[in-house]
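One-letter codes give the sequence; the fold follows as tokens. Both lines appear below.
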Amino acid sequence: MSQAHNCPCADACVLQGALNTIGGKWKLPILCSLLANGSSRYNELLKNIRGISNTMLSKTLKELEDDGMVERAEYLEVPVRVEYDLTDKARQLQPILAELIRWALEGRGELSPSDGP
């Protein structure tokens, strides 16, 4: 009978913490939209992320802001203008996401290991 082996860092898994920061249905689409389009206003994000509701966009932006991934800039104009942008911490994900895209395309047979993303 085989013995089960637990993750060696199960009590304080750094990888799980990282995945919690970017996991969920809407976090990656928001991060990808900001990576692709740069600083964006709320309604631009709502338009660019198909299927997200106002409630989920607001909640997820707040979570990303709390995790230090997104910064919210408020400009005291009439009417007030608010823009969201990635922090340096979030920008560090760009090469990691590019590798995940490569991995997914290879898995679907749309890219050979020697091709670029």
Observations:
- Strands lie at 40-41, 70-75, 81-86.
- The CA atoms of residues 102 and 116 lie 8 Å apart.
- The two ends are 43 Å apart (CA to CA).
